């Protein structure tokens, strides 16, 4: 998602520098996928960190050997 949004952002900004006609408004909506992809990735990192923290905090049972 982030990559699609990043490409759409580059495609949306390019006409400003090239002096061509702006792209349709659909591309502006696709740019929002970059932020959404970032939020999903950040949520995954936070979820993984909390799971690891819980795993470390839980005492392991004594081994039977």
Descriptors:
rod-shaped, single chain, mainly alpha, 2 helices, 65 residues
Give the % helix: over 70%
What is the helix/strand order? HH
For the termini, the CA-CA separation is 49 Å
Number of helices: 2
> Unreliable segments (pLDDT under 50, ≥5 consecutive)?
none
Strand segment tally? 0
Radius of gyration: 22 Å
Assign an overall shape. rod-shaped
Structural class: mainly alpha
Strand content: under 5%
Major sheet characteristics: none
Compute the average pLDDT: 87
Give structural notes.
- With 65 residues, this protein is mainly alpha-helical.
- The chain has two helices and no strands.
- The chain has helices at residues 2-18, 25-57.
- The longest helix has 33 residues, at 25-57.
- The protein is rod-shaped and about 75 Å long.
- It starts with a helix and ends in an 8-residue tail after the last helix.
Write the layout of secondary structure elements.
Elements: H1 2-18, H2 25-57
Helix pairs in contact: 1-2
Task: Give the structure's gist in a few sentences.
This protein has helices at 2-18, 25-57. It is mainly α and 65 residues long.
